[in-house]
What we know:
alpha/beta; Rossmann fold; seven-stranded parallel beta sheet; 16 helices; globular
Amino acid sequence: xxxxxxxxxxxxxxxxxxxxxxELKKRGNEVRIAAFEPFSAFVSKSGxxxxxxxxxVDALMKxxxxxxxxxxxxxxxxxxxxAAHTDEFMLSAQKAAEDADVxxxxxxxxxxxxxxxxxxxxxxxxxxxxxxxTSQLRVTVAPKIPLNNRVYNYITYNIAYGMIxxxxxxxxxEYYRKSGLHMRxxxxxxxxxxxxxxxxxxxxxxxxxxxxxxxxxxxxxxTGFWHDSDDIDFIPPPALEDYLSAGEPPIYIGFGSMVSxxxxxxxxxxxxxxxxxxxxxxxxxxxxxxxxxxxPDCSCLTDFVPHSWLFKRVKAVVHHGGAGTLSxxxxxxxxxxxxxxxxxxxxxGERIYAMGxxxxxxYRTKLxxxxxxxxxxxxxxxxxxxxxxxxAAEKLAKENGVTVAADIIESSVGAEA
Length: 417
C-alpha cells in the first residue's frame, strides 16, 4: 500500500512524518512525503520516497513570521505567500497522490480532502496543535485574553474555521473552478467526513502536555509525539565534541526554521545576555549566518546536529516553541524557555510555563538583554524546572506515538479495504 503524506511547512512539520513513515514502511508499506524541495535529501536518507512541492520554506517563514505580527496577521501572510504559487502548487499536490492508496496530511484547509475525494481514497488527518473545538483551550491562532473564558475558547474555533474557509475560497476558488476539482462546502467547524465516513484524526503530541478533552469525538486521537532515533549513527564534529567535554554542560539556543527580518537583533540580544551571565551556550548555525561572533566559552553549530543527540548533552534549551524541537527537549528531560515567533508557538510556550517546565515565554517583540538575562538565570537555576522536566521525560519515555498512530492508521485503512 502506498501512502502519500503532505507536510506543507518547516522541518518541524516534516520530521514527525519521517518517523511515522519509517514505521509504516517497516510494516510493509511504501511511503512518499510531499514537502518543499530543501527536505528532499533529509527524506530520501530515511529510505522514503519524496515529491517536491513548489515554494520555499524560508520565504514562507519570512512572510509569515514578521515582527509584531499577531496570530491573524500570521495566517494572512502565510496564505498570501502560497497564493502566489496557487496553480503550480495545486497541480503538484495532485500529482503527488496520482498512484496513492491513502493520503495522510497536516492541516491545509480542504485541499487534500478534495484530492482524496476525487481519487476515491481514504484520508488520515494529522494535527500538531489543537484544532478541535473545546471550551478548555482557545484555538492556537486566537489572541489571548486575560481570563480563561470557556465561551471565548469555544467560539475561537468557529471564527478560525470561518476565516480559513474564506481564505481558501478567495485564493483557491478560481483554481477549483477551472480544474474541475470539487471545493468542499464551507463550514465553521472541522469537517472530518469523507465519503460518508468520519476521518481519523491523529494528534502527534503527548497527552502529558495536552490531555484529551472529553468532549472530542471518538475519531480524534492523541497518540504521543512522533520522534525518531536519528542519532544512532551520528558522529559529531570533533570541535563540538571537544567543546562539550571541556566544561559544564551548556545551554542550547536556536530557532529552527524561523526566518525573520529581526533575527539578527534577536540573536544579538541573547549573545549579550549570555555574556553578562558568563554561561556556556551552544548556538544554532543562525548565529554564523547573521555574521555574529560567538561569545567567549560558547560554540556555534556549523552543520546539522540531531536534537535527540545534542539535547542529552546540554543543561537547558531555548527555542521558538515548534512542536518538534519542543518534544526533543522534553524527551531529553531539559528545562525549556520558549521565544514564540508565531503560529502555534505561543500556545506551547504557555503550556511549558503552566506545567512548571520552564519560565514564562518571552515574546520577541519584548526582548531586551535584561529580560533575556533574567529568564536564562531562572531557566538554569530553578530546581523546580529541572525536577519537573525530568519527571515529564520519564512519562514521555513510556509513550510510543508512532506505534499508536500506525496501529490506528492500519486499522482504519483495513476497515475501508
